[in-house]
Amino acid sequence: MEKAKSYALRLLSKRDYFEEELRRKLLQKGFQEEDIHQVIEYLKKENLINDDKLLERYKEINLQKGKSPLYIKNKLYRKGVKNIDFSYEEELDAALYLLKFKFRREKNYTDIVKFLRNRGFSYTVIQEAANKFLNGEE
Predict the structure, then answer these.
(1) Residues 81 and 34 occupy one common structural domain
(2) How far is CA 98 from CA 19, 62, 64, 67, 123, in A?
(3) Domain containing 39: what range?
(4) Residue range 106-128: mean pLDDT, rounded
(5) I need a labelling partner for 59 at 20 to 30 A (CA). Which of 67, 73, 87, 110 fits?
């Protein structure tokens, strides 16, 4: 177990990992399931891994980069995180941010709708974001 714990701490010293992501890494390295479980419990007890905090931080960073909630959900799903919810306001803010800083074409409704739809935003968010963007309410 000490080798597994040492390896996990070395991984966590470089960046934060979700619990499932860390579990996969340890399994790939060849550690026993029992040792991995003990290491994960130790890390949780010491508050070295916290999926909830990391999830919020991950969502916030990617929304600020203009990534759509669909993109973020897919990325998180691949990392082993399920049950990811976005509020309507978070999605709308991400869409407006993306329009403000990344949309380089002439401002017309159809181009804006295509731009946001291709990035995975929901239609209700696209409508509101496009209207706000065109009316200058960013």
Answers:
(1) no
(2) 30, 11, 9, 8, 15
(3) 1-49
(4) 90
(5) 110
**Predicted pLDDT of residue 103:** 79
Task: Convert 14-33 to b/e letters by CB count within 10 Å (16 or more is b).
Answer: eebbbbebbbeebeeeebee
Residues 68, 131, single domain; the answer is yes
Same domain, 128 and 103: yes
pLDDT by residue (tens digit) across 91-110? 898 888 888 887 777 778 99
Q: What is the mean pLDDT of residues 29-35?
A: 92
**Rounded distance, CA 91 to CA 18, Å?**
23
The pLDDT tens digits for 54-81 are 999 999 898 888 788 888 999 999 988 8
pLDDT at 29: 92
The span from the CA of 85 to the CA of 82, in Å, is 9
- Cβ contacts of residue 137 below 8 Å, gap of 6+? none
CA distance 68 to 111: 17
Residue 137: predicted pLDDT: 67
Do 86 and 37 fall into the same domain?
no
